[in-house]
């Protein structure tokens, strides 16, 4: 063993001190440069992304309004039959009002017109000084298109196009064939101006036959002005490309046509900056990547940053937005400041070296004392890396102590790291372990992820116990390892969720096949403590190029797909789509608005009458909740009721509706508008039914509103009662003891047994509308309805048929012995302010009911 020479402490410290100082200055310089480049990249990406997003949003409004205008014109022509050939004077007046008055604020619109299958055309073109020119081809102009120097046929003609056939124009033929509204390709007008134009086109139908197409033109010069206006807040350059890579518009208002009147590629633009960026895009084919991509290029010894972003809409518009900006515009004087900082660091480093050498003798004295004290550090949890390079008498004890401490800390660190990267229960990778394993993959690498979640695992834990539940998870992990190929990374990312990641399975079909294969293992039972346990599982899948945010973003997306898969019985898996994130964001926003609506009492009661079929009288009404949102308008119940039930807010909503309905019913009875035996039906969520203190809340509502219990009927959906049968039966008995009636809603659609039905307290059964709708089509449904009516009579309960829409259905229900009915045949749900009090007190007949429904 070779022994290193023993040096004095002064010599041993002086040498590394000098080297470390020089190394530090060098590292600072390199780190500063790398930090500058990294910051420059991040700043350019964020700035250009933000600017592109603003342009995209503004462009949505800029193009969206003319498109909606075009669709409105088409709808009006179709609805009011404005096209009356061979003379188009009626349509001529309507289009003139549209461009000169109704849509005058939409300055980007250049022309509004309508062309027919008869090869007629009428429209108006904006001129300077708010003047308009009539474009006309009908029986008055024979086969030619006349452009008049004014807004009527009696003005002089400014231009004429012989043998004009609108059916051959690019804004007519594609949309007449597809019968779908959309944007045309960029084209040149045939008028005297021959401007470049895009058009919004909408087919117009009459009696399921195409009669023509409405067209709304936007001059590309307007888009140039739009981009120039948006570019005022930045020094960069902005332009738009179409799907062929040709220029559509630029913020510099440069020409986009060549001398041969053909549109230019950006690389051929007269703007040097646009040409340079366009050449880079063309060389690297960035416009074909179909995703937002950042890039940088050099021009005149200066560096520029750019970003190309796809811009698409649902009406076949397929453009790309390109923005560029100079490096100097991003960071200003920072490069010069960086150099000054580096020089200052060198000066300070040199000064520190001189001062350090002078005080070194003073520094070495306490090191011996530190060596003695370092023994105490071996019990601490500090991580102190030590590398023995020379042998020093004074530091030997210190080094040995630090080594001992480092070794112990390393063991603790390894144990902790294993706990973080691997699931302690199953031995699979944890979510953090999966993230770390995939962190080195290049962004954009093709891969696939399957997220498998168990259904009702909490119920299994409650029934088998948490220890057995953990053993079940271990068996699931073991079975996964047996059936899943070895090149797929397995991980447990949640309590009852497992992830399968593969770099070799990249297409949607392949990843769905992997999900299907993995789910097949749940077809066989698991044996836990001598008990066969069958599990149900669902899967969410995602595949394609890895995003910038890595696997965590995929896990989130797959979780959204898994949530959607759990909402349906089939299929067992669901592939992630962008709409799921949009829906999730919308659900979050709607949840917040729903909470705000509860606090502000935005819910109101609509009433749908219930008809006594024996007496032809309205004997009651069902109270239905409606949400009149200040921002959304009238929100359909199907959109917010499921969300309210999932979030638990249905309890407060139900309480507000119950109180409001009882109060209004009592007031109507006291005013003599409703009879004293009027029956109010209010829907009751099972969440409300099972909440603690519900009976006390119900008593308080009746006490405050003074509504007699006999006037109130609470409706509970049959399928929801079976979740906790003993508890629900107990609470229903308490409700009935108060004198309140109970109705079983949507009867016949649930899965409750007749044995369970015999235990339920109820006063009436509501026959689901699905039976009533099919009752006239087949005797099978009539037999079911008759059986329900007979069964209700045997239980000494009434029946209420829902969804009655025709006189034939009413007659059939009467013949079968049904006592009560409700539906659109009688009336739609209406607020109390629109309720007809006459119908409550007078016998109804079909004529009166029809008037009420209207």
TrEMBL record:
SMART domains: EAL (SM00052), GGDEF (SM00267). Residues 445-578 form the GGDEF domain. Keywords: Membrane, Transmembrane, Transmembrane helix. NCBIfam families: GGDEF. Residues 361-414 form the HAMP domain. It comes from Photobacterium swingsii. GO terms for molecular function: cyclic-guanylate-specific phosphodiesterase activity. The chain crosses the membrane at residues 12-31. One of its GO terms (biological process) is signal transduction. It comes from the Bacteria. This is Diguanylate cyclase.
């Amino acid at each position: 063993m070779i022994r290193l020479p023993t040096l004095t402490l002064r010599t041993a410290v002086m040498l590394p001190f000098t080297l470390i100082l020089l190394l530090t200055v060098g590292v600072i310089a390199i780190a500063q440069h790398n930090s500058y480049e990294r910051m420059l990249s991040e700043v350019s990406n964020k700035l250009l992304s933000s600017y592109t997003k603003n342009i995209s949003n503004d462009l949505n409004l800029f193009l969206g309004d003319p498109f909606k205008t075009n669709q409105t014109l088409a709808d009006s022509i179709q609805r009011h039959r404005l096209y009356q050939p061979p003379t188009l004077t009626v349509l001529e007046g309507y289009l003139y009002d549209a461009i000169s008055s109704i849509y005058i604020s939409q300055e980007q619109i250049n022309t509004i017109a309508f062309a027919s299958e008869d090869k007629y055309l009428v429209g108006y073109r904006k001129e300077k000084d708010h003047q308009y020119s009539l474009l006309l081809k009908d029986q008055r102009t024979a086969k030619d298109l006349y452009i008049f120097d004014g807004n009527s046929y009696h003005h002089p003609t400014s231009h004429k196009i012989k043998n004009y056939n609108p059916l051959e124009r690019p804004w007519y033929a594609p949309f007449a064939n597809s019968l779908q509204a959309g944007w045309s390709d960029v084209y040149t007008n045939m008028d005297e101006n021959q401007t470049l134009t895009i058009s919004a086109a909408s087919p117009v139908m009459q009696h399921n036959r195409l009669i023509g197409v409405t067209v709304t033109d936007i001059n590309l010069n307007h888009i140039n002005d739009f981009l120039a206006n948006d570019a005022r807040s930045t020094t960069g350059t902005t332009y738009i490309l179409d799907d062929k890579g040709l220029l559509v518009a630029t913020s510099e208002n440069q020409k986009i046509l060549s001398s041969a009147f053909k549109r230019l590629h950006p690389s051929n633009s007269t703007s040097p900056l646009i040409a340079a960026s366009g050449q880079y895009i063309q060389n690297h084919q960035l416009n074909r990547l179909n995703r937002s991509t950042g890039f940088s290029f050099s021009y005149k010894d200066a560096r520029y940053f750019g970003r190309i972003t796809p811009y698409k809409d649902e009406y076949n518009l397929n453009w790309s937005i390109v923005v560029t900006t100079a490096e100097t515009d991003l960071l200003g004087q920072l490069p010069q400041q960086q150099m000054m900082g580096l020089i200052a660091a060198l000066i300070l480093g040199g000064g520190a070296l001189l001062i350090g050498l002078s005080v070194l003798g003073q520094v070495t004295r306490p090191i011996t004392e530190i060596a003695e004290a370092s023994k105490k550090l071996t019990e601490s949890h500090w991580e102190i890396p030590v590398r023995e390079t020379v042998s020093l008498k004074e530091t030997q004890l210190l080094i040995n102590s630090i080594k001992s401490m480092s070794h112990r800390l390393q063991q603790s660190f390894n144990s902790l790291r294993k706990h973080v990267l691997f699931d302690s229960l199953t031995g699979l990778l944890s979510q953090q372990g999966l993230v770390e394993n995939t962190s080195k993959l290049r962004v954009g690498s093709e891969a696939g992820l399957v997220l498998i979640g168990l259904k009702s695992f909490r119920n299994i834990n409650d029934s088998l116990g948490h220890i057995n539940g953990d053993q079940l998870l271990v068996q699931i992990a073991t079975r996964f390892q047996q059936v899943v190929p070895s090149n797929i990374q397995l991980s447990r990312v949640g309590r009852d969720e497992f992830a399968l990641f593969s770099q070799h399975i990249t297409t949607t079909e392949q990843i769905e096949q992997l999900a299907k294969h993995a789910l097949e293992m749940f077809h066989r039972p698991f044996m836990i403590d001598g008990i066969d346990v069958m599990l149900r599982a669902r899967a969410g899948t995602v595949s394609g190029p890895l995003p910038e945010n890595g696997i965590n973003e995929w896990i989130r997306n797959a979780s959204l797909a898994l949530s959607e898969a759990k909402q349906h019985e089939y299929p067992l898996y669901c592939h992630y789509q962008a709409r799921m994130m949009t829906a999730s964001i919308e659900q979050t926003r709607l949840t917040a608005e729903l909470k705000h609506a509860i606090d502000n009492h935005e819910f109101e009661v609509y009433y749908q009458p219930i008809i006594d079929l024996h007496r032809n009288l309205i004997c009651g009404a069902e109270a239905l909740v409606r949400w009149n949102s200040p921002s959304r308008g009238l929100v359909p119940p199907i959109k917010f009721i499921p969300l309210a039930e999932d979030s638990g807010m249905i309890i407060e909503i139900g309480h507000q509706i119950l109180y409001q309905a009882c109060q209004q019913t009592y007031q109507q009875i006291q005013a003599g508008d409703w009879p004293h035996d009027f029956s109010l039906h209010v829907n009751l969520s099972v969440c409300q039914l099972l909440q603690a203190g519900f009976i006390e809340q119900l008593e308080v509502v009746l006490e405050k509103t003074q509504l007699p219990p006999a006037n109130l009927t609470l409706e509970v959906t049959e399928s929801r009662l079976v979740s906790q049968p003993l508890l629900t039966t107990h609470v229903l008995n308490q409700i009935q003891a108060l004198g309140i009636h109970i109705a079983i809603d949507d009867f016949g659609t649930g899965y409750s047994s007749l044995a369970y039905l015999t235990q339920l307290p109820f006063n009436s059964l509501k026959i689901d509308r699905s039976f009533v709708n099919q009752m006239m089509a087949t005797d099978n449904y009539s037999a079911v309805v008759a059986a329900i009516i007979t069964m209700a009579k045997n239980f000494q309960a009434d029946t209420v048929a829902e969804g009655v829409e025709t006189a034939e259905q009413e007659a059939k229900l009467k013949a079968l012995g049904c006592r009560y009915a409700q539906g659109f045949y009688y009336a739609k749900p209406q607020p109390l302010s629109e309720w007809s009090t006459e119908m409550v007190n007078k016998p109804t007949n079909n004529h009166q009911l029809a008037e009420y429904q209207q």
